[in-house]
Amino acid sequence: MPAGGRRRARRRAGRLRSGSRRAHGGPMTWRTTSSLHPVTMRQQNLATVLKVILAHGPIPRAEITEIAGTSSGTTTKLTAALIDAGVVRELTASGPAAGAGRPRVPLDLDTTSRAVLTLHIGVHYSLVAAVDLRAEQILQRQVAHSSAEAESVIRGAAEALAELRDQLSGRHVVGVGITSGGSVDHTAGRLMHHAELGWTEVPVRDLVAEQLGLEVVYDNEARGEALAELTFGVGSSADNVIALFVGSVVEAALVVNRQIHRGARGIAGTVAHLPVGAAQGPRCECGRTNCLRMVASNTGLLALARERGLATESTTYEELVNRGADAAVSDLLALRGRWVGEAVGTLTDLLDPDAVTLSGNATHADGFLDAVRDGMRAADPSRPDGIVQLATFGERSTAAAAAALLLDRYFTDPVAFEPGLDTHQAG
Ligand SMILES: [Zn+2]
User: Is the confidence at residue 403, as pLDDT, over 70?
Assistant: First the structure.
């Protein structure tokens, strides 16, 4: 590792240590009883060592010691515990270092032993998946919503998750991460309101937890995307991030100094009614025609296409975007990107982030990123459009976002999820 990288890594490890219990804000209210234990120095060190392996693996013990700031004896004991538990594994040594000494055996997360189940509740269907400890996908399937009724949709999705679990032979499932659009009370695990689904006050977390008997974390989609970026993506070099989700809903999550900024009422990042320049879309429920949700969401785009004679009442979003070769459709898609870019410009002026990441199925259209950058520069050519990028996990980001909600807690307090780590006294 070059010296600069090592300095950055040390700074990061310092942050990990000082914030190890509340790395991303929010009270510690999840329901694992073992999470109520007082946190010992050993548990904090376990989390630090695990986060160093997450960020830098494969990595030999000597470098873990340097970055984590632990003694080499402590590193040896803690990595032995992580290996015995099956969370970390030794890779093949790359041979003795030049000169002499023992071979440097790199350690990495064991991505074959654990799984996280994920659920994204969409507007027309839900996506269920299983991912590994690096949020990489193992299995995925769509579940069509059989009704508009919240409880039956969620019970159906939980059944699909149970089926996925049965297919994960040999993997220990550490928990479930759930995302949806709309406003979510993440401490209560409840969906407060989702305009597009027409749902209010749904106890999403408890419905799934009852059915599966697993630890469940539930939050808004954009916040999951932001945590996935912090843990596995742009967070390696960015501390301030705007994660914008553009799909059936349009929502943002704001990350300030590596913490999700939730706001006084927990609704920070609600950008649905952000006015976008002179845009003329269908009339929003708020009465205006230039709300971001009406010109940039999939449903808004479809309505706009109908107004322009490019779609009929029965045309689906997928059918519309598949006609991207049609100049009028392609113009409309580029316009959508520029409107999103205008909103990104406003948000960037407010937060001055290191990075802006874009997720949701709008981002899959050809030329979307360029159109967003164009729109961002429209009001102010000096805006740093290079900070805008597509989500690190690309088209796999929906499952990664839901998994990140659970994995953030897992890496912050591994003992709560891996009881074997607490009793291990080897070394
Ligand atoms: Zn509106």
Answer: yes
